[in-house]
Every structure is written in C-alpha cells, then in structure tokens.
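Table S7 (text form). Paired inputs.
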Amino acid sequence: MRRFLMSGSVTLLALVVITALALARDSQRQAKGESTLGPAAISQEQKALSAAADPTYVIGPEDGLDISVWKEPDVSRAVPVRPDGKISLPLLNDIQAAGLTPMQLQAVVTEGLKKFFTGPQVTVIVTQINSRRIYVMGEVARPGAFPMLPNMTILQALSTAGGFSQYAKLSGIYLLRTERGAQVTLPFNYREVIRGRRPEQNITLKPGDTIVVP
C-alpha cells in the first residue's frame, strides 16, 4: 500500500510539473507574439502560406512580402503592400506590387536595380496573405476572418470556423458578397446542401465574402 501511495504521489507530481511547463511555454509564446493556436488552426496557416508559394498567386493589398537582394542587405526589406497596391524600396521608391505574381514583381525589382548594381539577384516571397480573406460571423465556434484557400467553398469555410453552435439556424445561412459596388445576398441551406439536394449553393468563395450563420 505504501509503495502504491508513493507511486501515485510521483505521478501527480509529474502531472503538475508537465502542466506548469506547458503553461510557461504558452506564456513565453504569447510574450513573443508567437501563435498558440491548435493543430487545426496552424494547419490552415500552413495551407495559406502554401497557396502563396504557388507561382500563379497574385499579390494583393496588405499582403506581406520579403524582398531579398543577394549581398545587398541595405536594399533587402520585409515590406507590406499598401492599400494602394504599392510597396516602397530603397533606391526604387514606390513600386506597383498588387496584381503581380511574385516572379513578375521579382523581374520588376531586378530591372530597376540594374541601374545601381551589376547582375542583382532578387527573391520575392509572400510571407503573409492578408488580401485574400473571408469572414464567418454568427453562431459558429470561431467567428472571424480566415485566409481564403484556393477554390474554397462555403462548406469548407464553415468547417474552418469550427462548426456551429447549438443555436445556429442551419437552413437560414447566407453569404454577403459585393458585386459591382452593390451588396448581394446568396442563401445557403446547410441541411439541404449536405444531403446533396442543392449543391449549387455551395459556391466557391471570393476575397471579402462574409458568411452569416444566424
């Protein structure tokens, strides 16, 4: 019996130590501004960055870029794309970035730097996708803004938001979209869609779309 009690005490002490270490690690991450999201959320972040690595990805306003010029650290910069679609770089001043792929922007920067350096080697990497976001509001587990992955549908966005609360009206979901300066409302009956009755409602999302779950 004494040996059993000692074993139980050791186990309890180990659990306390492990818990304390986990809390300390999360506190350190929060202090450093690091992500403490769960595996599902981190997976979404990784998928978003993977989408940005696509050579056909088109840079948009508020995206984050890392522009590196080999052996020229004074010119290399981590820059945000401004709302007007431009970035600022030493020697080149303002450059249009939105609407270009990373490779196209790389060519533009390289051409501009040829006036100052011989054979500049430029690399452009998209580090943050902020221009392609969709929003999920209402009775879901995690309402908010989410990176829009390639060919993302309403069902996939709802899954990203963690599913529904117990009060959600699944037949009354709708999507808000701005088209030609006007807001339109598109219905989405979750119960019908998952039964295969209204697949046309499970449309592919566009940047800025908002899904409302009443």
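Next pair, protein 2 of 2.
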Amino acid sequence: MAKHITVSLIILLGTLALIACSSAEDSRLVTSAANGDIALVESSLENVSNINVTANDGWTALSVSSREGNIDVVKYLLDHGADINAQESGGNSPLFWAAFGGHVEIVRLLIGRGADTTRKCPKCQTPIEIARSRGHKEVVKLLSALK
C-alpha cells in the first residue's frame, strides 16, 4: 500500500519552506502553529495522536511556533503536553528558536515551564549564545539572570 504524504507551503521568517507530513492532520497542526492560528491548532489536535508529531523535515508545532513568535500557540501547546525540550531534526530546541528570534515573552514562558537553558545546538551554541550573536539584548539579559 502506498503511503500518502501531505505537503504544505508556508513562509517562515520570510523564507519559503515546505512542510511534509505523514498525514493531512499532522500537516495542518504544524502549519497552523507556524501561522499562529490558534483556532486551527486547537481543532488539529483533535485529529492527531501525538502533540509532538513532527513534519518530515523534523519540525514540531512547538518549535515552529517558538521560532515564529506565536506566543498564544506556544502557551496552548505547552498546556496540552508538548515536549518543551523536543529538538527538531537540526538539533535545536524551542528555547533556542525563541532566543534566535528575540521573542522575549516566549523565552520567559519556556524558562518558566522548565526548558533546558544549557542545551547546545549542533553548532555548539546555547540559547544565550545565539541571542547574543543576533543582538537580542533583552533575551541575553533574561537568560543571564539564570546563572
């Protein structure tokens, strides 16, 4: 039996990206999280078996919503059991992506919910190091206060 793959087209930080998922429901969840559409995220969760489902490129709904700065989606996913430290296929956590984007409130939320602040990405950068390299002073200050 042939396996069907659903491909969704989204724009992440101005970059065209394809998200391929094993089912239409998985694709809808990840795409809705990227777009910040909380209503679609809520309805999508009714049709997926695992909130931590990844797109074929390795992105979880929590990682992509953290990267895009969609705080309402991040809160919702965490409240419904998303793995706060799940790494996408590139090895980066939701906290890394929030720090990368300079999303102070998401960084604060993730830290408050127990995100690992010391996990390094494959390029050996912690969230504070990526925030510093991108000039996100408020995120650096927030993460520095934890030491």
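The longest strand covers residues 6-12.
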